[in-house]
Amino acid sequence: MCGIIGGISLSANAAATVYDGLLRLEYRGYDSAGISALDGGAITTVKRGGRVSALGKDAAALAGRAAIGHTRWATHGAPSDINAHPHNSGAFSLVHNGIIENYAELKAELVARGYSFASETDSEVIVKLIDDCFSGDFPAAVAAALRRLKGSFAVAVLYAGFDGVIVARYKSSLIVSGCKEGIFAASDVPALPADAENIFVLEDGDIAVITSGGVRFYDFYLNPVARVQRHIVRGEYDSDAGNYPHFMLKEICQDARTVADTAEAFSRSADLAAISSAVGDAEEIIITGCGTAYNAGLMARRYFEQAGKRHVRIEIASELRYYPPADCSRALVIAVSQSGETADTVEAVRLLKARGATIIAVTNCGYSAITRTADIVVPVCAGAEICVAATKSYLGQLVALRLISRARSALAEAEELVAVARKMPEVLACDEMSSLFADECAQSSAVFFLGRGADYDAAVEASLKLKEVSYIFSDAYPAGELKHGTLALVDESTLSVFVICQPLTAEKCINAVHEVLCRGGRVAVITDDDALAAQLVGIPVWKLPAVNSELSPLLAAVALQLTAYKAAVLLERNPDKPRNLAKSVTVE
Ligand code: F6R
């Protein structure tokens, strides 16, 4: 979703810090960007459709001690210069992340009071409303305006008569940190200057008034509130692609490290007994998440069933929040989210918690909304994931979920997972095969990913990865379902990628391979079975190292992530910033 940053600089260079921060926040949205800076009682705004870099040097060079900036993922109003943030009204300038649900009603009211609107955005109503509420007291005007909003927001506001920035949060992430350069608030840690190591996390309903004298926190009625500072380890937020051409490749290469770090952290966790009893005591386990996190949950349902747990459900969070079970007082909800800020997952968790469920959060972000709502937090140790498409966090989620399902034998299980991680470099080294798979995908009008059992779960995630970064149409099916309809789509322009690592159904999958081949469809196979690989002549076969078949999907995931990455590059897509998407989906 959108990313915002704003703050006060000890030098006269706030815009430069904001510009650099926006470049590091682009994974949250990249269809337009802008900066406002306050200098000598005057606000200057530069904003434009396109990437942050399209703002050019002029924006970074704006003079002034206070500045705010925005990188946008459009919700209301097409990406354009006019719809780009900041939005201004009189002496005020504002950036916003979120959605204002009652904006139409507020806009009608403001128009009736004589305001005119330049953009089609919902955000512009906030700054007009602040202007309208202003009668000499900036914080009071902001607070009064915010109390009228429905929806979600993180905002940063400048006022020409105030040497500082006011920021506020309701259901969209926002943190504040002091550093050598000054004090800055941002949607996420990577945007902050490199030396910012202690952060305040704003709660829903918080306003922070940032001046060169420090930061003060209030509620929306301007009652002071106390917020505790947390220390963060900046190494985890390394937001540089280094020698890699893209973050996606760098992050795939960190799959093994993520598996090992997540397994190690879990086996050292002080919560092992609590996790064990939460799982043991639950009458029902509901796993929830969105996108890739949901796909990790799909696989995890099998982990719990294999460990003997009955009544395990997997629910898409955006559905669960509106269609929850009537009684969840004996339920354990396992919420999976890389960012911990995905709006649908956050709301599902809040709702089910209010109905009595116990919550375990599996997340890569220790200060996120989901982390703070959960009863128990199981960290995914992936470090910063900058590419919009989730890769290493998926592996970390699988590991965390596997270990939650087996908390009693965590040490031995963690060792087995680390042993699987050691095989990952072997998979990544299959350069010719990954290029061949990518080439086959890139030539196809559609790619079907097929598998059975846990291989099907891996296929679902592989399909999502390929379509989001390459824009090739793709779908996943249990291989046995092919003949019940999808086979009608198979011809020489389509590719069917089979994942065959489950001994129980391997032969059945081979039947499906032949059914596709004899209808002229192209096929590629990933398997860890030597004998099976030897049977398949004349088609690309990617042979994986053999491991416990319950864990082989982890290796298949690495192979298929690399395939998706290479297909995107072959088709000249930017895999780090797929069109129309953004990371951290903080709106509904
Ligand atoms: C796909 C992807 C998304 C996210 C989804 C949930 O590559 O990144 O599908 O998995 O938006 O995000 P989190 O895990 O942050 O809740």
CATH architecture level-2 label of the largest domain: 4-Layer Sandwich
Structure annotation, total helices: 19
CATH superfamily of the largest domain: Aminohydrolase, N-terminal nucleophile (Ntn) domain
* Mean pLDDT figure: 95
Structural class: alpha/beta
Cα(first) to Cα(last) distance is 11 Å
CATH topology of the largest domain, by name, is Glutamine Phosphoribosylpyrophosphate, subunit 1, domain 1
- Report strand %: 15-25%
User: Which regions have little confidence, pLDDT < 50, spanning 5+ residues?
Assistant: none
Would you report the number of β strands? Answer: 24
Fraction of residues in H or I helices: 25-40%
* Overall radius of gyration: 25 Å
Query: What coarse outline follows from CA principal-axis ratios?
Result: globular
What compounds sit in this structure?
Answer: fructose -6-phosphate
Number of domains: 3
Largest sheet composition: 8 strands, antiparallel
* Strand line-up across the major sheet: 3-2-4-1-10-9-11-14
